[in-house]
What does this fold into?
Amino acid sequence: MAVSMRDLDPAFQGAGQKAGLEIWRIENFHPVPVPKSSYGKFFVGDSYVVLKTTSLKSGALRHEIHYWLGKDTSQDEAGCAAIKTIELDAALGGRAVQYREVQGHETEKFLSYFKPCIIPQEGGVASGFKHAEAEEHQTRLFVCKGKRVVHVKEVPFARSSLNHDDIFVLDTESKIFQFNGSNSSIQERAKALEVVQYIKDTYHDGKCEVAAIEDGKLMADAETGEFWGLFGGFAPLPRKTSTDEDKIADSHSTKLFRVEKGQAKPVDADSLTRELLDTNKCYILDCGLEVFVWMGRNTSLDERKAASGAAEELVHGANRPKSHIIRVIEGFETVMFRSKFESWPQTTDVAVSEDGRGKVAALLRRQGVNVKGLLKAAPPKEEPQLYIDVTGHLQVWHVDGQEKILLQASDQSKFYSGDCYIFQYSYPGDDKEEYLIGTWFGKKSVEEERASAISLASKMVESLKFLPCQACFYEGNEPIQFFIIMQSFIVFKGGLSTGYKTCIVEKELPDETYREDGLALFRVQGSGPDNMQAIQVEPVASSLNSAHCYILHNDSTIFTWSGNLTTNDDQELVERLLDLIKPNLQTKPQKEGSESEQFWELLGGKTEYPSQKVAREAERDPHLFSCTFLKGNLKVVEIYNFTQDDLMTEDIFILDCHSDIFVWVGQQVDSKSKTHALTIGEKFLESDFLLEKLSHETPIYIVMEGNEPPFFTRFFEWDSAKSAMHGNSFQRKLAIVKHGVAPIVDKPKRRTPVSYGGRSSVPEKSQRSRSMSFSPDRVRVRGRSPAFNALAANFENPNARNLSTPPPVVRKIYPRSVTPDSGKLASKSAAIEALTASFEQPPPARQVIMPRSVKVSPEGPKSTPGKLTPESNNKENSMSTRIESLTIQEDVKEGEAEDEEGLPIFPYERLTTNSTDPVTEIDVTKRETYLSATEFREKFGMAKDAFNKMPKWKQNKLKMALHLF
It folds into this structure.
């Protein structure tokens, strides 16, 4: 579409450059900006143009344009608003969706911009009306309709206006009454209370009494008597009679028209398909309640205006007061429009470029207008956020048939692709222990065991009174929360369960179950030591990718392969995962392009493989849907511009984030519906209401009201006091309207985490093994310093490979102190000197990596035959454990003030663990801080001058660092 300066009204220049609302009123057939202080105030005699600009996660700006027509606006003003809307779309590049809004029949999307409601005022500008002057308060009666947004209409102040089906708000000078018809729903009553709050704040400065009147409750109640007294006394209400406005146009047959020379001509077709629409034409799709105007990309501005006029004439016929006109541009059709066609390709061949916006931007630049918002911005680079405390406690069960078997700590993040698993993660919340119970399904797992896993996990959730958030994950589609809970996650091919073995026997398939002495290839991925994975893939060259690192082994022969697109961080993850898959063995590093013949021979010969980095999908903007699940059928309705207040405790809602979905279940939902929550999530994925081709294996979370995890509440401006309130949604909002704030309820006490393995519960937070801080403001340094490596090397086996992490073992919370032999003092002295020198200078970049934190879990049953067994706790492992504990202590104290002045001093003999007279009531993890400086130097062979020259805090830091040795 050609763009010229004559097409652009000066009032629209610079519009739509940042997120938010912009409103213009039609005055003398020109758009005039409305002051922000008057947003939401509409006059019945005027027409308006409303622009909603949304900043997407991708960095682009999305525009939606509405033109609102007051019931008393003139036909000329209404036509002007329709045409100016098309011009505004042209100024924004010709891709905005445009809506016609008629007073009293607005779309829910439009009303969501002005929550809780809009109450049009009498008067107008160009229509000749005078604005209503602020006079003394007049008693007014409003009818309110809607469960998600509220349509408010003023009706005559008379008993005959009331009925049993709707909700009415009576605004008097001293009190606001809400009359709830006996046939109205709780949700409608709760939404109407938002209107009461709006009237209270807008017309009474927040100082006014509020009363709720129930239909059928007679004069016994004082406020009820006062309400009916305003109508001259109580009398039975008439039955509601249907009007033309109440007639639904659902029975209207869908018709397609082609617009030629401003006239709508029917298109003969047996069925609606995308191929019927010509990019050089405009079309009208009449669906009754919705009338769509489709404008081809190659149509002119005049042709689009003519098509809009033809649609206006179409809806001016009889019995069509509720019809909405929605104009869409080719390539930017709404989901609702596409759903009307029997076949609509996922992508079209339309050349959608930035040319339109570029031309408009160039024109505006010449006038000195900032046009930054007209062009697509580069997507912001965001690091994956955790949104979950990582200091929690993890338990994992392997599902075998109808049973679950608790895994040992060393095996709890080693999964098999043919099996199913259940995990329980408990972590500290703001005021109570939080739980996440989930299932993980391998790609080759059988349906029977998947069903068993869901059943067993659901019973665990039910046993905890539905407090935990329940999750369902599939191999290859795991969310970031799962990986950071597991930290080091390995997926082996094959399976150990009875179901998998039976399946391969029945189908006569080869058993691919991983063997330590066999040939295996692992793809390494992740972002760091607390989020790293090794996924076993087919041992062939085509499995390689230049963007990844790999581990290839054939029994004791081990290769590591680094693609040309990998970084040093990626290669460090290989070293960490090697210690979990093939520890204590020498490797043969391979760089892409310089591989050995033996490497290619193990992969069956060199072949082509991918060489591009697959970008992580950007997080998309979430959508909220209210759900109705009846007789196996799911019906959803989208809630626009949603807030926490839209979550009604009687209902079930789905928050669709594309990469995962949340099924939120209110406290007042019946128990039968609660058990269907996972089914509702699965039905939602199957239906694909947004036509996004959602995977059926998208992660699903089941969230119970009052126990929302932070990775759910981050999508809202969350007030935990609201979700903790008692009563139904109407009772809760009534309490807020009357008292001004959500009442404080008793906070649940922190529960003791449940262990299903028959062992004791989780240690206190200060004793937990996970060392990463949850605070986003604190950067945790997880690597060893060179001086620390030098110190640790004096106590390690010199014949072993210099490992980045020790074999996974269960670490003791309080390791015993070890008295060094006198023969080692010289070597230790050198190591101490190196350690103290490290206090003065920062460590060089990325040398040897520190041991990762190993999670503590109760010991489970012995490993299933064929499964990896935990490493033996030999002397080397014991020393590695002490070294790791030392690192944790060093990590915990990092960045903290460590002035230990005033601590008591004790003889060394009383500080040892085998002392006959041990000191009590001291911090046993810091024994050496209780030594005198003289004894400390004697025990660790330090020079007096070197020690005394250190500041006090550095002396204590060195004492802490060396207390294990």
